[in-house]
Every structure is written in structure tokens, then in C-alpha cells.
Amino acid sequence: MPIDFPPIKSKIFQASASDAGTLATLRLMGTADASVHVHVQQAVTVMREQARALQVSEVAVDMRELEFMNSSCFKCFITWLSDLLEQPAEQRYRIRFLSDPSKHWQHRSLRALSCFAVDLVTIEA
Amino acid sequence: MPCFTLSFRPNTALVSSVRRFVADIWEAWLTPELTSEVALASHELLENAVQYSSNGETEVHIEIEMLGDGQTVCIRTRNAASPENLHVLRAAFAELEAATDPEAYYQAMMRRTAKRTEGSGLGLARIRAETGLSMSLDIADGQVSISARIETRAPGSQA
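YS: structure for the whole thing
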């Protein structure tokens, strides 16, 4: 069953997803600010539903083309991780963030996420 | 002493434009990392001002002061706010200032706000933990002024 993720295309923010075996990938591009919070929330919600339905072992979140993320959009990921931490161990999956070292905010924000869910989050630069 | 002040009726789309403007202006003066920190703090403070402004207007002022072998960067937003929002801001700053460990407080706020449906409640904690800027709140005549400040020194200079 292929991933069911309608692409999100707004003027400043885009999201798409793909899957291969037990890995699903969520790709975020553009700017995630308050004006597109609803789109970011939608992207995370659909990805969470699909990850559960497809029983993946890992979700890669590709942020390399994400210019910036504000705190309200960042919180969508905190909620995702918080809910995942509450799941039984056998229903959890890992989340691997792909980052761009030249976007300095990504290093700092993703480090905070990895501290929040030490056993679930890995960061790849 | 380079500085600029913008006064405008903010909307959420304009905040990102201001963040990019801030980054473009200051990248000539600051390291890429510090430019990124100033841009992040500017964005979060402006979104805060949009949220709490009672008349839709806000002002952002950013300046760099050269001090010998270092520099001080200061970002200040100013807006009018309702008494209810002033109370919320005072409480938020009192809690922020009482927390001595910025990273521990940030993690605590992340746990606390994970289930929150409106706003993030994370902006101030994020600025302090992710940028190292210190913040202060001033309220006078219904006007809120939030300042975020960081002092830097040139590589190799004595602290």
C-alpha cells in the first residue's frame, strides 16, 4: 500500500512524502511560519496517520530546504514526538531529521528535539 | 553604530519578510551563526508582538553597538497591549526569569505545551535557549517593550 499524502503547495511552504519499504520520508520546503501553520499541522498529522497505517520503522523528515520554522510550527513536531513517546514500545518508530548545516537554526532546534525524545530522534547533517 | 527601526501594522506574512530583511542587513556585521540567532529572535518577538498588540501596530528596533573588541546586539519590539495580555506577559516573564537553566526550562515548556492547541507558548523559551540572548520586559502606559540582547567578543579577545 503506497503512502497516501496529498502534496501541500502554498506560496511559501511545500510538503511532500514518499515511502520505500519500512521507511517513510516527509520533505519540507520553504518557510514554516504562522501564516502556514495550518499546512504544517496538516503535513505532520497526515504523516503520523500514514506512518501508523504503514507500520514503518522510521520516518525521515527532510528539512534541508526549509529556510525557517517558527515556534508554533516547531510545536507540531513536539506534539508528534510526545504522542509517540506515549505509545507502547512496539508501536513506536524512529524519526530521523535531515538538516542543512548552513541553516544554523536547524542545528539548535533539532538538538532541542533530540533532547526531548532521546530514544526516538536522530539528526543527520 | 548601525541600527534600524521599523514601524508597521504587522501581519503574520510580514514577519517572515522582516526576518529575511534582518538577516540580509546584519550578515555584513555578524557571524553567520549570530545572524541566524538575531533573525530567529526577531521573528519570535515580532510574532509575539502581533499576538499581543491591541491596536495592530508594532515597532521593531535593532542595533549593534561596537564596544572595543566586541559588540552588543539589541532587538526591541514595542506594541500596545490590553490589561489581560499585560498580565499574561508579566507572568510569562516572571516564570522565565525564575528559571535559572535556559535549556531545562525550554524542555519543561516543550513538555507542558505539547498538548496545547492554541499558539505554542514556546517563543520566549526558545529565544533564550537557542540563541543565548537575554531578555527583559518593560511596561509603561499600556505599552509593552521586550528587549533581547547579546554581547559578543571578537575571536581571541579576552573576556
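YS: worth flagging: The helical segments of chain A are 37-54, 71-85, 104-116.
IM: good catch. Also Chain A touches chain B at residues 12, 31, 33-35, 68, 70-72, 74-75, 78-79, 81-82, 102-105, 108-109, 112, 115-116 (CB under 8 Å).
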